[in-house]
């Protein structure tokens, strides 16, 4: 019953906004494929610019993919290479996100984080991280191990960096807010509507949409914001050259929750590792602690949390929190990062391909939108709108 009501809403939206070409084909202005946090942010931005926007989501709800399986951290923009999209969009996105959350009463807290070096060998690497952050326009304070211990008595550290701009956010609350503003601007989300194929070889974009009542949509603009599914959708995209279809690797990360009380008020991060930022401690808005994610390269989407990985977690955590109680760690959830570089540890930037990259007017593909995608979502939306100008 719920699914049918949703599809009726789609037909109603098409009846009001779309131009009916025949019994199963409709003309629409702008289609965003994918209703994660990035897709919803883009749709909101485009709808507020005066466009008629339709968001198509294959699942039964918004935000069930990568957007619901991350650390819910607002990143400062510390580590990313100067001039990269990740660096620029994270810093800009963080500023936009704090302002947005404050003005819309979306749950968040600028709690700050410590990056800790557990021994002298790691401590020498903090200088490079501090310089990179400064180049990116991010404030960090470099301190001694004693200074870290004064703030976090339970943490073992030879030295550390304090990031006051790092925070946490209610990702679901953010997506609800973005969806509400999309609808206020006249846009519409339609779930249970998988895009099966797209052909952009005839001057427009023809989308074959599945579901209970399959339909063909002909759009002026299309944004592929399907996260993990983006390269697969692009692979069969008519009119898109082979060079515009990147290879993707999948890096699974699991999280373990820590039951009961703990001594932390700030996030605690070890030094970064290839593929991620190391097994770190994050907090939710209720104050519960969780650890993760680790990095495991996988061949397919598999969100299993193997309880046996707890031993590796405990070993990593004890490098900076010796008194962690392993018995209070419990399997929580897993997420998968869409990577444009493999296990060799090389850096891969966000890839946001507009008409200048692939030569097709009105089309933007988003590939490799992993961390800091949540932090960057509002800035990514601005960037996509510029690509379509």
UniProtKB/TrEMBL annotation:
<feature type="domain" description="FAD dependent oxidoreductase">
    <location>
        <begin position="31"/>
        <end position="385"/>
    </location>
</feature>
<dbReference type="InterPro" id="IPR006076">
    <property type="entry name" value="FAD-dep_OxRdtase"/>
</dbReference>
<comment type="similarity">
    <text>Belongs to the L2HGDH family.</text>
</comment>
<keyword id="KW-0560">Oxidoreductase</keyword>
<keyword id="KW-0285">Flavoprotein</keyword>
<dbReference type="Pfam" id="PF01266">
    <property type="entry name" value="DAO"/>
</dbReference>
<dbReference type="InterPro" id="IPR036188">
    <property type="entry name" value="FAD/NAD-bd_sf"/>
</dbReference>
<keyword id="KW-0274">FAD</keyword>
<dbReference type="GO" id="GO:0047545">
    <property type="term" value="F:(S)-2-hydroxyglutarate dehydrogenase activity"/>
</dbReference>
<dbReference type="GO" id="GO:0003973">
    <property type="term" value="F:(S)-2-hydroxy-acid oxidase activity"/>
</dbReference>
<protein>
    <submittedName>
        <fullName>L-2-hydroxyglutarate oxidase LhgO</fullName>
        <ecNumber>1.1.3.15</ecNumber>
    </submittedName>
</protein>
């Amino acid at each position: 019953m719920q699914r049918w009501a949703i599809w009726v809403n789609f037909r109603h939206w098409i009846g009001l906004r779309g131009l009916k070409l025949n019994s199963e084909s409709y003309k629409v202005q702008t289609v965003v494929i994918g209703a994660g946090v990035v897709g919803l942010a883009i749709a909101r931005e485009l709808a507020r610019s005066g466009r008629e926007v339709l968001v198509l989501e294959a699942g039964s709800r918004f935000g069930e993919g990568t957007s619901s399986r991350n650390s819910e951290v607002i990143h400062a923009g510390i580590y990313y290479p100067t001039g990269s999209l990740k660096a620029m969009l994270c810093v800009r996105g963080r500023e936009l996100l704090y302002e947005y959350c404050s003005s819309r009463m979306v749950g968040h807290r600028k709690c700050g984080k410590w990056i800790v070096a557990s021994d002298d060998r790691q401590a020498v690497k903090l200088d490079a991280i501090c310089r990179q952050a400064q180049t990116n326009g991010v404030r960090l304070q470099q301190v001694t191990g004693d200074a870290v211990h004064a703030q976090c008595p339970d943490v073992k550290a030879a030295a550390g960096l304090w990031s006051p701009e790092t925070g946490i956010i209610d990702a679901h609350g953010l997506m609800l807010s973005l969806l509400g503003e999309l609808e206020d601007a006249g846009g519409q989300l339609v779930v249970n509507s998988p895009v099966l194929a797209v052909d952009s070889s005839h001057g427009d974009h023809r989308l074959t949409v599945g579901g209970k009542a399959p339909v063909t949509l002909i759009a002026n603009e299309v944004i592929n914001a399907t996260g993990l599914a983006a390269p697969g959708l692009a692979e069969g995209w008519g009119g898109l050259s082979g060079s515009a279809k990147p290879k993707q690797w999948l890096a699974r990360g699991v999280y373990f929750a820590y039951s009961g009380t703990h001594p932390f008020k700030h996030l605690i991060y070890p030094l970064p590792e290839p593929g991620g930022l190391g097994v770190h401690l994050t907090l939710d808005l209720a104050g519960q602690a969780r650890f993760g994610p680790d990095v495991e390269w996988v061949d397919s989407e598999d969100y299993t949390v193997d309880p046996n990985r707890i031993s590796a977690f405990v070993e990593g955590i004890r490098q900076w929190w010796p008194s962690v109680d392993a018995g209070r760690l419990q399997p929580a959830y897993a997420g998968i990062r869409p990577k444009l570089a493999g296990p060799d540890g090389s850096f891969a930037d966000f890839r946001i391909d507009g008409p200048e990259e692939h030569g097709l007017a009105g089309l933007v593909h988003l590939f490799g939108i992993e961390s800091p995608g949540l932090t960057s979502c509002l800035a990514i939306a601005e960037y996509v709108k510029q690509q379509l100008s």
